[in-house]
Design a protein that fits this description.
This protein is of the alpha/beta class. The chain has 14 helices and 25 strands. The structure holds uridine-diphosphate-2(N-acetylglucosaminyl) butyric acid. Uridine-diphosphate-2(N-acetylglucosaminyl) butyric acid binds at residues 22-23, 26, 93, 119, 121-126, 160, 162-165, 186, 233, 304-305, 327-328, 370-371, 398.
Length: 421
């Protein structure tokens, strides 16, 4: 079995380029299905999740190739309206292909993604929006059978600003007839990035970043060239790692305005943070103090994806830090593993209270999900002695060669197969 071997106690020094955003790249790869022609998606991160999206693109008939940091997607040929369940299972967010395939082909057949490590993850809001646009959707035995000759514009009021449902609706409405208005839309930077790609492809989308998005339907879209925004959660992860382990780290190719609440909490914890154009510098002694309560919220609130990394940084902070998770039902699965390293955490429902301890100790732990896995790595960097972290398939979904970046900064970290010694 593969694991990361981490010997903690080494501060992090140096500079790191932040990868392109996973959660932008995935909907933009799905959008490439709509854009008849060749799309060039630059700064696309190399992750198992983006590889899964590429397998879906090829399955539905697109040609995909890479050149440097760019992925080329040619969707000028006919698109097959079906995604086999083995591909749907590889990545929960593959449901983002539903809107584009339905809009492009007039039909779509795929299996519902089902729950995952962080909770039930229903797609009722996606389906409700697509039905409002005129799609007939049959749900049978976990399969979705969808039809719509041409989607009709309408007004869609989302009762919760779901990121995926906002994106699926925008994607489908791009080829609809008339103007669709989405109210209660998610406001994440990734939604703005999707809008930028769709407009570059000849679409007419306005309002992303606010809670009202307008999509004027077009007959067709064409290929587009686009650069994916930097990953705000990867940036938050590196900052939390430096906060916990101590050191002096400069991040470049990063947009700090996309994660202000994370910077705010790290400052409260005693880190010295400086921001510049596409740049953030953090200096930390590794001796932190507890922050005021961290409550996850839709953007522009504190991001749920940064909750586990910040919790890892809070473990040795002086005082008590409260975490409240309001977005996902089951996002504390890193807690029992962190306890194995000596953390003092009590959970009740969606609240976790972290009592800062003097020291963490290396242990064998297993990641149960992507961001929880990042939390384990951060705790291991700050711990005394060696840790082994299993469940690397989760980390590889969202971070490009995490151990290489950390090793460059001075961490003692290595990926090994059991038996490698
Ligand atoms: N929800 C529903 N019904 C729906 C859709 C969502 O009840 O139809 C609920 C979910 O169950 C969840 C909440 O609404 O409790 C938020 O879900 P949302 O749709 O906003 O999230 P998502 O689109 O499934 C994206 C990111 C997540 C990130 C969330 C929140 C991608 C590919 N994924 O998920 O990223 O946590 O938004 O910001 O964009 C990660 O990168 O580790 C990750 C999980």
């Amino acid at each position: 079995m593969r694991s990361l071997h981490v010997t903690g106690g080494k501060p992090l020094f140096g500079a790191l380029r932040v990868q392109g955003a996973k959660n932008s790249a995935l909907p933009i790869l799905a959008a490439a299905v709509l854009a008849e022609g060749v799309s060039v998606i630059r700064n696309c991160p190399r992750l198992t999740d983006t590889e899964a999206a590429v397998r879906i693109l090829r399955e539905v008939g697109c040609r995909v190739w890479e050149d440097g940091d760019a992925l080329y997607v040619d969707s000028s040929g006919p698109v097959r309206p079906e995604i086999p369940s083995r591909l749907m299972r590889e990545m929960r967010s593959s449901v983002i292909f539903l809107g584009p395939i339905l809009a492009r082909c007039g039909e779509a057949r795929l299996s519902a993604p089902g729950g995952c490590e962080i909770g039930a993850r229903p797609i009722d809001l996606h389906l409700r929006a697509l039905r409002s646009l005129g799609a007939e959707i049959e749900e049978r035995g976990g399969n979705l059978n969808c039809r719509a000759k041409r989607l009709r514009a309408c007004r869609i009021d989302l009762p919760f600003p779901s990121v995926g449902a906002t994106e699926n609706t925008m994607l489908a409405a791009c080829l609809g007839e008339g103007e669709t208005v989405i109210t209660g839309a998610a406001r994440e930077p990734e939604i703005q990035d999707l809008q930028a790609f769709l407009n570059a492809a000849g679409g007419s989308v306005t309002g992303a970043g606010s809670s009202v998005i307008r999509v004027q339907g077009r007959e067709r879209l064409h290929g587009a060239v686009h650069r994916v925004i930097p990953d705000r959660i990867a940036a938050a992860t590196w900052l939390a790692a430096c906060a916990a382990a101590g050191g002096d780290l400069r991040l470049y190719d990063t947009e700090w305005r996309h994660y202000r609440p994370v910077l705010h909490k790290l400052r409260e914890m005693g880190c010295d943070l400086q921001t510049g154009e596409n740049l953030v510098r953090i200096r930390s002694t590794g001796k932190l103090k507890a922050a005021s309560p961290i409550v996850t919220r839709p953007y522009p609130g504190f991001p749920t994806d940064a909750q586990p990394p910040l919790m890892a940084a809070a473990l040795t902070a002086e005082g008590t830090t409260a975490f409240q998770e309001t977005i996902f039902e089951s996002r504390f699965r890193h807690v029992p593993e962190l306890r194995r390293m000596g953390a003092d955490i009590r959970t009740e429902g969606r609240t976790a209270l972290v009592w800062g301890v003097e020291k963490l100790y290396g242990a064998e732990v297993t990641a149960a999900d992507l961001r929880g896995g990042a939390a384990l790595v951060i705790a291991a960097l700050a711990a005394e002695g060696e840790s082994r972290i299993y469940g690397l398939q989760h980390l590889d979904r969202g971070y490009t060669a995490m151990e290489e970046s950390l090793a460059e900064l001075g961490a003692e970290i290595e990926r090994k197969e059991d038996g490698d010694g």
